[in-house]
Amino acid sequence: MHKIAKDTDFIDQTLGPIAQVDKFTGNLLEVNRMVQREGIAQPVISCINRADYMLDKYHNGSLRIRQVEVNAIASSMSAHSSTLSALHGYLFSKYDISLPNDISASIPENNSLTLVAQGIIEAFDAYNKNSAYILLVNEERSLNFSDQHIIELRVHTIRPDVKFVRRRFIDLPQLVRLGPNKELLLEDSKEIALVYFRYGYDPSNYNFDGSWKLRLLIERSRAIKCPSINFHLSGAKKFQQVLHSEKALERFLVQSDASRLVEVFCKFWSLNSEDSEINIARQLIDSDANKLVLKPQREGGGHNIFGCDIKHVVDSITDPAEQLQYILMEFINSPREHNWILLQDDANDKSRLDSADSLVSELGIFGSILADGSGVVSNKTAGYLVRSKKSGINEGGVATGYAGISNILLIDDNKLKHHYNMFYDD
Ligand code: ADP
Ligand code: MG
Question: Of 33, 92, 344, 384, which has the highest C-beta tally within 10 A?
Fold first, then answer.
């Protein structure tokens, strides 16, 4: 991620054509260009990220892991996921739950919350001014407020001297300005050391006067941003497509690392009509659409197109330039687990619960990076998030109402197979 983030030419080359047709990407790119041209004022750049994976049922029935995406902004659920791991561990021992035939099982320790809190503290310390504040930027009505508050609490527990403020993005134009040395000043008197974005990843977040002027002002300031604009851009889905081959990855990695990494990547196809792959992509859309996902350059759930809808969408985009903003990705064929979920029955009666006993799961791994002008200062990974949803539901996401938070149970795979198959035989 850091290698993409600092390669402004590569970012421009890759996202430039999309910026022509997608104003949101265009605005982010423009902010990045202006900040890079002017020179970075912040002492370090920071990113708290989460890479998401699903299990894929391979043609001979064996399982392999496939990367869904990498989130570079507002990576959430670190608080709830570590609380849930602790809760499940406690319930396991309280009720003396064990698997049949004494197969040992354990819930791995989940340090996601501490990783995120420490990432925030490390970035704050890099500003080197203890009287300054951390500013958490959030939405008008936060559904995920408890995740954010628990992070604030953990930061406070580790470092009671660090001051935290939360403000809504929409209110900030009236509240912030730059000081004489590009300090980011909130309400005139509070100097901001770190801006922690839990918002600002979707075009709809910018539907107010002065929103892009505000993002530019924040990015130009000395305050450290988590993520900085270039880290934010490095999470664009287009990079997954452009870097999915070993050869392409060698721009950033030595060959041995590149070949290990591509092992978890899905196949991707370009929809660029000038690309030789376009015919393969078209054929797949016509004959095998269920094995594909079409994705625009968006975050936050609900934007992807699955199965036979892909053809309708692709056919409806007549401008070849418009097609560039989509990536076509291999569908990850997750095995259906014997498991349980209770969800609110949003489709029918909100007061009723909907349940299912056939689920698919997605594993997220949290990371925290800090880099200065000369390179990576700190790059840590710890903790996880498991989200499970009913099988057959395409979209994921807890806040969006599709999935619930779940957990990892580590078992000895070889022993378990003899006694119990946790997946349905499809
Ligand atoms: P977002 O930025 O909206 O979270 P994702 O790429 O994570 O976008 O896609 C949203 C959800 O769609 C995922 O959580 C997953 O459940 C499902 N999904 C995404 N890509 C694939 C894929 N290639 N195969 C199967 N399901 C997918
Ligand atoms: Mg996602």
Answer: 384
Tokens of 138: 């959030």
Tell me if 393 CB under 6 Å of ligand 1. Answer: no
Alpha-carbon Rg for the chain, nearest whole angstrom, is 22
Residues in the chain: 426
ω into residue 227 within 30 of 0, thus cis? yes
Tell me how far apart the alpha carbons of residues 89 and 73 are, in angstroms, rounded to a whole number. 30
In whole angstroms, how far apart are CA 306 and each of 26, 181, 295?
A: 26, 49, 9
Q: 76 CB under 6 A from ligand 1?
A: no
The reported pTM is 0.95
378 is catalytic: no
Kindly report, residue by residue over 136-183, the tens digit of the pLDDT.
999 998 888 999 999 999 999 999 999 999 999 999 999 999 999 999
Residue bearing tokens 């990371």: 367
CA distance 229 to 31: 7
**What one-letter code names the amino acid at 29?**
L
* 290-294: long-range pairs with CB below 8 Å, 24+: 290/331, 291/330, 291/331, 291/333, 292/328, 292/329, 292/330, 292/331, 293/328, 293/329, 293/330, 293/331, 293/394, 294/326, 294/327, 294/328, 294/329
The ranges of the chain with pLDDT < 50 are none
Q: Catalytic site residue 237? A: yes
SS3 of 405, please?
A: strand
SS3 227: coil
Residue in 365, 331, 330, 332 with CA at minimum distance from that of residue 241: 330
Residue 267 phi/psi, 5-degree rounding, is: -80, 150
Active-site annotation holds for 322: no
Distances, alpha carbon 298 to alpha carbons 145, 236, 266, 288, in Å: 22, 8, 18, 24
Handedness of CA 250, 255, 261, 262 (dihedral sign): positive
User: Encoding tokens for residue 413?
Assistant: 């795979």
